[in-house]
Amino acid sequence: MQIVFDAQPADAKPLKDMTLERLRFALRRVAQQVNTARISFTGVNGPRGGLGKRARIQLHLDAHGTVIVGATSSNWHAALEDALRRMVAKLVKTLSQAKRPRRQSMKALTQKSVAS
Fold first, then answer.
1. Which CATH architecture has domain 2-115?
2. What are phi and psi of 66, to 5 degrees?
3. What is the rounded distance in angstroms from the CA atom of residue 67 to the CA atom of residue 87?
4. How far apart are CA 84 and CA 47, in angstroms?
């Protein structure tokens, strides 16, 4: 799994080591299914600063496409933790839906029993 870290504001760059560690921990059970993980931090209010800090996580999965989540908070740590929580929930949902067999309609089932 390749992890790409992108932080636009200078005050988010010191979070790199902690962010990579938290992301690896959150993905430890499904890391073999993730090709690339991209995490980015941006300030919502632009160059003026402000209270909005946004964390965005994008995962490219082998067989299930792309999962993108984001969270906004007043500090970087809270935005990261909220985005990680959302990412895990969405990833679990995506992977569990892929494992479930598709349900057949009653019409299709009755046509099979009539044909045999």
1. 2-Layer Sandwich (3.30)
2. -120, 140
3. 8
4. 25
For residues 39-59, average pLDDT = 81
Q: Residue 81: which of 99, 104, 55 has the closest Cα?
A: 55
Model confidence at 57, pLDDT cuts 50, 70, 90, reads very high
- Distances in Å between the Cα of 114 and the Cα atoms of 7, 73, 105, 106 are 61, 59, 15, 12
Q: What is the dihedral of CA 6, 12, 14, 15, to 10 degrees?
A: -80
pLDDT for the residue numbered 100: 63
Contact 35, 3 (CB under 8 A): no
Tokens of 59: 């995962």
Kindly tell me if the per-residue pLDDT of 110 is higher than 80: no
Residue 91 contacts by C-beta under 8 Å, 6 or more apart in sequence? Answer: 27, 30, 59, 67
* Confidence (pTM): 0.75
Structure tokens, 87:
């990412």
